[in-house]
Amino acid sequence: MILTAMQPSSLPAAILRSGRIEVWLETQLPDDAARGEILQGWLESLPAPLATVDVAALVRATRGLTGADLKAVVEDGKLLFAHALSIGQPAKRVESYFLEAVETVRKNRRTYAKKKRVEFGEPEPIGFRSQPA
């Protein structure tokens, strides 16, 4: 069995008890160099206006984001750029679309990081219904 968790502190103590987990792998958030490589990889296949983005500016703006977050930043930045073109907005610096996407990703992370309280209703009785003969 393979187990993954974004926040191991949210796992039940019974799972984390000694002897239950044989191998524990921990990953870290990408540092500046790694974020630069990840962003460059996603940006290099984009058309000319988007591929010319200042990667160093994006690296500075994306501290604390995961690789998946960086992919979302690139995808959302592309969509923001395409939307602006489709409605005839005046062109902005390419970085501004990606920086707007960074803020959206950060906002989404804050929203989903909040623990949501789950309300449970009355349990339904479990049993067999007698069938008429």
Record keyword descriptors for this entry.
mainly alpha; 0% strand; single chain; Helicase, Ruva Protein, domain 3; 50% helix; 133 residues
Characterization of the model:
- The chain has about 130 residues and is mostly helical.
- The protein has a domain at about 30-115: Orthogonal Bundle (Helicase, Ruva Protein, domain 3).
- Helix content is about 50%, strand content about 0%.
- It is built from 6 helices and no strands.
- The model has no long low-confidence stretch (mean pLDDT about 85).
Summary?
With 133 residues, this protein is an all-alpha fold. It has helices at residues 13-16, 32-43, 48-51, 55-61, 67-86, 94-113. Helix content is 50%, strand content 0%.
Strands, count: 0
Sheet bearing the most strands, described? none
Give the structural class: mainly alpha
Q: How big is the Rg?
A: 23 Å
The CATH topology label of the domain at 30-113 is Helicase, Ruva Protein, domain 3
- What is the level 1 CATH name of the domain at 30-113? Mainly Alpha
Estimate the global geometry from the Cα principal axes: elongated
Helix and strand string, N-terminal first?
HHHHHH
Unreliable runs, pLDDT <50, ≥5 residues?
A: none
Bin the helical content.
Answer: 40-55%
Query: How would you state the average pLDDT, rounded?
Result: 85
CATH architecture grouping of the domain at 30-113: Orthogonal Bundle
Q: What does the oligomeric state look like here?
A: single chain
Tally the helices: 6
**Strand coverage percent:** under 5%
